[in-house]
Amino acid sequence: MMVDGLVGKIAGGQVVAAAGQAIAGDDTGADAVVPSRHGHHRYAHAVFVGGAAFADPTDIVLYAALLLLPVDGTVFGFDMMYWSPISPLLFALYAVLNIRFMPRVFARFALPVLFPLALVVGSAYGWLTIGFHSNTAMRSLVALATGVSCLIALDVAFRIKRLNWRIAVTVVAVAYWLSLGVGILQFLAVHGRVPIVTTLSQSYLERNYMPNRVQFLFAEPSYIGMHLFGVLMPLHWLTRRKDIAVLALVYAAGAAAMGVGVRILIDTVIALALWLVVIINFHRIRNVILAVIGVGAVGAAGGAVMLTNARVQSMLTHGFVNGDFSALARLFRALAPIEAWLADIPHFLFGFGAGNLRAAIERGYQPAYDLLKARGDNPGGNGEIRLIATPPNDNYIFSMSAYIDFITEFGVMMFVALIAVLLVHITLNHAWSKMTVCWLLLLAYLYFQFEGYAFYALWLFIWAVGAGVVAGSGSRNDAE
């Protein structure tokens, strides 16, 4: 099994060799096969095979975007909701440089491309009734535009131009191996061995956790799972490249070993369970038993590590809410907008408008505060909650949940419409399969604690379904 292989690689000192295979473009298992409905494998859409690395000079921008995927927390990126990525802007630039292909993209992805425009139009209600805050509204609109640009860029590059998918995935692998290397240097810096790394991190990271915690190049340590299981694991599902699976597992194990946080442990157990569901043929009892043992072993190991974590010990002693400063603040950031929804049904239905999360938090602040206090919690003792009442700037306005942000800004009606668009998109492309369902469940979980509209996980899923590279699809003419 994969866990045994990983242990063998680590024990034999072959992790560096695995990284070297990724850098060298090792395509072990990379003949681009995907599982069929019957648990076997079949060759995927032609987008996976052949093709040149470059079709024209603009493709340099695409590879730059892929190489910078793990760099989403530096001062050099565009400041969005609690993260500052660079790649979304490069995807947008690539889409503009290749705008001549837009009609072909639109023919395949009309619903996903038009939906953000519907969100902008729908925001008019909130803007007229509550107000238009240019700074925060611009951030939300840029996030939507660059998110769609990711979809457009993927389609132009790999379905229309037929760039070499294997090379692109190798570039992504190299990027994340380098990101892991940065994390190792930060770990050494935390323990006082490489002080220059601490200095550089404090200079160039937007929200700096050094020298207390390793954060790689992410805006927040808890975002690691979004990258490993929102980007790398789907790429493994699509390509069957073993080096990508090794990379994701080594990265997760390394993050846990370096004490990055609790969420990566939970993310890994959930993602591993879904990964096994996708790759294992459950018609054999032996496979079922091995899968249960594998998930159970990882879960037990993760639980053992969690019990040694100071935050977990505090939560066990004082309760989940009062035992962790961050958990209480996150709960409050979600609860305040929800209280605003309940007190204003029209805006709950149709949204407060893009960029108006702050208005919702202000309206729900006191009811949320009173509710927590009535429960016996101590929101007044939490400095972050006190600061939410009078935030120093717009950078402090976030919920850390895509669901809270989306429903607050665009309304529950648009949220239902989004789900409908996704389901229709999958159905029209005949892409329903075990992998599709597991991928959807994984996305639903990951975005529960991440709010970036421009993040690549959802847009990669939409593209893979529409381009016919997931199991059960591919019935449409790829030259369309």
Q: Please indicate the percent range of residues in DSSP E strands (runs of 2 or more).
A: under 5%
Distance between the first and last residues' Cα: 40 Å
- Uncertain regions spanning at least 5 consecutive residues: 1-46, 473-480
The assigned structural class equals mainly alpha
| E-strand count | 2
| Average pLDDT taken over every residue | 84
Portion in helices: 55-70%
Over all CA atoms, what is the radius of gyration? 22 Å
Strand order within the widest beta sheet:
1-2
Number of domains: 1
Detailed description of the structure:
The chain is mainly alpha-helical and 480 residues long. It has one domain. 65% of the residues lie in helices and 1% in strands. The protein has 21 helices and two strands. Strands 1-2 form a two-stranded antiparallel sheet. Helix 9 (224-239) packs parallel to helix 11 and helix 20 packs antiparallel against helix 21 (456-467). The longest helix is centred in the N-terminal third of the chain and has 28 residues, at 102-129. The chain starts with a helix and ends in a 13-residue tail after the last helix. Residues 1-46 and 473-480 have low confidence and may be disordered.
What key phrases describe this protein's structure?
2 strands; two-stranded antiparallel ribbon; mainly alpha; about 475 residues
Summarize the structure.
By secondary structure, the protein is an all-alpha fold. The chain contains 21 helices and two strands.
